[in-house]
């Protein structure tokens, strides 16, 4: 990742409105498949973007924000898929959400999650 982009993410100030939360989550969402548990981490911030929700940025939101910034600026340990090699999908679902990992040769290719 470009060092200038890493610096801009690290210096991103905590959102002060639902619009600013959407902006940050838009950037972070682009990389969601590289971030294990993305939906679970982003859930509290996502709730702040809903209609008729009072915007209160608390310690839990700040913790999630900092965790996403950290995950966006560190190198994910993913592998590039190989043609002709079988994939394995691990999934887990509950009433709270769904999580999946796409693997090949015991290495993670991608993550996916929804809450």
Automatic annotation (TrEMBL):
Pfam families: RT_RNaseH_2. Residues 57-114 form the Reverse transcriptase/retrotransposon-derived protein RNase H-like domain. InterPro entries: DNA/RNA_pol_sf, Rev_trsase/Diguanyl_cyclase, RT_RNaseH_2. This is Reverse transcriptase/retrotransposon-derived protein RNase H-like domain-containing protein. It comes from Rubus argutus (Southern blackberry).
